[in-house]
Structure formats: C-alpha cells, structure tokens
Design brief:
Blueprint (H helix, E strand, L loop, with lengths): L1 H19 L4 E8 L9 E9 L13 E5 L3 E11 L2 E4 L3 E2 L2 E5 L11 E10 L7 E11 L5 E13 L2 H27 L5 H15 L6 H50 L7 H25 L3 H27 L3 E3 L5 E3 L1 H36 L1
Length: about 375
C-alpha cells in the first residue's frame, strides 16, 4: 500500500512536470511582405520558438510539434539550436510540417530553440479574407493541443473586385454627403465642419488608386470615417438650427406677454394667462430639445425643437390677435372693459367725421356769401 501511494505521487509529479513544460515562447515572428496581400503574391514567414524551461525536459519525447500554412506550394526549412549550436534539418513541403518530440527533448538545463521558415504563394480567393500564413501547435500523444500550445500568424488577402467596390461605395457616399451639405446650407444650417470633412474624404478617395492594396484600403477607411463624421456634424448643426428657431419664437411670445403685463387693463385678462401657459409648454419642449442635443440624440432634439416652435407660434398668434383685437375683453374676475385698440379707433373715427363736416360747412357758407355779394 505504501509503495502504491508513492507510485501515485510520482506519476502525479511527472504529470505536473510535463504540464509545466507544455508551453513555448515565441522569440520572434514576421511575415514578408507585411500588410494586405493579393492572390499570387510570394510570401515568406519566419519564426523563432524558445523551449527553455525550469523543470523537467524542454519537450516530451512522446509529443509532436506541428507547423501549418494555407499558402500554396509551401516549402519548409527548419533547424534546432542547442545552446547556440545550429542543427539544420531536412527541408519539407506541403501544408504541414511535423517535428518529432524526440528531436526537441533535452534536459531543462539546455537552451533549445526552433527556427522555422515557410515560403509559399497566396491562393486565389473570391472574397477578401484572412489567410493563415503560419500556425504552430504543440500536440500531446493524442494530437490534442496542449494549454498555451498554439501560435498563429495571419494576413489579410484582398480581392481586387472587393477593393473596386469599396472605392465605388465611398464615391457614392461622398456624393450623398455633397447633396446633404447643399440642402442644409440652403436651409441656413451651419456646414463649415461638414465641408472640412468632405474635403478630407474627397482627397483620400482620389488617393485610392488601387496600386497598393494596403494604402488604398487605409485611404478608403479614412474617407469613410470623414464622411460619417460629416453626416454627424450636419445632424448636430441641423438640430441646433431648429433649437435656435424655437428660441426666437419664444422670444417673440415673451415680448407680447411683457407688453400685456405692462398694461394695467390686460394684467388680469384670462387670455393672457392662457397664452402664458402655452408659452410654458413651448419652453418645456425647448428644454427637452437642448437635453437631447447634449446627449447626442440629434433626431430627438429636432423633434422637440419643432414641437417647441409650433407651440410658441400658436401662443404668438393668439397674443398678436389679442393685441390687435377690438371690442371688449374678459378679465379674470369676469368684468368687462373696453379694449384700448377699440376705444382709440372709435374716437379717431368721430374726429374724422367732425372734421369732414366742418370742411363741408365752410365751403357751403363761402359759396352763399359770394352769391349774396353778386345780388348786392
């Protein structure tokens, strides 16, 4: 029983040692050429793997180290360095490279590194997608990838047709932006920021000549961001313009309300109170519009600004009609008084009639006197 327990402990410790070493360190890696690739391009990938460990062995002899690539016509070169001494291995070809664990199994006191190079050609593709240029895996005896036992180098393969479509899409979006800017400018909306973004997008689209895939796509990305920023700027300016109009409408109402409150005969007029309530409702919508603008919800800001302007216009029309109206107005205590506009109108009419009567009477009297003088 005692020996059985010791055996179990030893097996457990061995497992721990193997697991502790079940990881590798990527000392360096690179793909040439860098950036986006086109079909048919010759590609080379280099990698240096460090298997140094503090305990056990550098690599279990029963495990396998595997390389993989999606490149066509792939050719592999690799060597194992032990304490700096290079040991080249035979070249290989195909999608996979498999290295026996026995070749990498050294005491932990040794420095073991693997130098791998794979060369190949980018395959044909019908769509822009990522390509696995190099994948390295540490496999156990059951071909299962050990924990932290995988590393991958990828590059984007660009389909020229997709790039042409991207350029066309950017040109179409720029044309739409031009129309939006012109429409907003005609409506009196500020467009300076949007114009600056438009010029930036236009410049980057013109620079997308397609000869350099990476540079072309970078220019298109910059252009699309500038277009999106311009549209956002237009939305914000449009909302601000609607809010400013609502503010002006409220100011017009306030002037008439001030006029009524300064007139003693209108202070208690029920219609003035009703107009004031309309004005407060418009002001609530105006406040909501500003809050939406601050939150970046420009569409809601426009809706609330229009609501405010509509309510303010209704209050203004009612106030204007009250100021210019004739007849009597009803006060809050239901007493009736003559409105200033009506009283002054009647007096003016009477004075005009009297003046006309005096003129006519003078003319008649003058004519009679002349006739009397002739009769002598």
């Amino acid at each position: 029983m005692k020996y059985a327990i010791k055996g179990i402990i030893i097996l457990f410790l061995l497992c721990c040692i193997v697991q502790a070493g079940a990881a590798f360190k990527m000392e360096s890696s690179e793909v040439t050429p860098s950036g986006d690739l086109a079909a048919g391009t010759a590609v080379t990938a280099h990698a240096v793997v460090d298997f140094s460990t503090l305990t056990g062995t550098t690599f279990p002899s029963t495990d396998t180290f595997q390389g993989f690539t999606e490149l066509d016509k792939a050719k592999w070169q690799y060597s194992i360095t032990i304490n700096g001494a290079d040991n080249p291995k035979p070249d290989a070809s195909g999608k996979y490279l498999k290295i026996n664990g026995f070749d990498l199994d050294y005491p932990s006191s040794q420095s073991v590194k693997l130098l791998i190079t794979v060369e190949g050609v980018v395959p044909q593709t019908n769509a822009t997608q990522n390509l696995t240029v190099l994948r390295l895996q540490w496999l156990d005896a059951t071909t299962k990838v050990r924990d932290n036992g995988e590393f991958t180098l990828t590059s984007k393969v660009v389909n020229p047709d997709d790039l042409v479509k991207n350029v066309q899409q950017a040109q179409s979006d720029l044309k739409t932006l031009r129309a939006d800017i012109d429409q907003r400018a005609a409506a009196g909306v500020g467009t300076d920021e949007a114009e600056a973004k438009y010029k930036l997008a236009e410049q980057n689209i013109k620079s997308s000549n397609g000869t350099n895939f990476t540079a072309t796509q970078a220019n298109l990305d910059t252009a699309q961001k500038a277009i999106a920023d311009a549209e956002t700027s237009l939305d914000k300016s449009w909302a601000q313009s609607e809010i400013d109009q609502a503010k002006n409408s409220l100011a017009n109402v306030d002037q008439l309300i001030t006029y009524f409150k300064s007139n003693p005969d209108m202070t208690n007029d029920a219609r003035v109170a009703a107009i004031t309530i309309q004005r407060e409702n418009a002001d609530q919508a105006y406040t909501a519009a500003n809050e939406s603008l601050t939150a970046g919800n420009y569409n809601q800001a426009r809706i609330k600004a229009n609501e405010s302007a509509t309510k303010a216009l209704g209050a203004y029309n009612d106030a204007l009609a009250l100021r210019n109206g004739t007849g009597t107005t009803k006060t809050l205590n239901n007493t009736s008084t003559e409105s200033d506009g009506g009283g002054l109108g009647i007096i003016y009419y009477i004075l005009v009639v009297v003046a006309i009567g005096l003129v006519v009477g003078g003319v008649v009297l003058y004519q009679r006197r002349n006739r009397w003088d002739e009769l002598g």
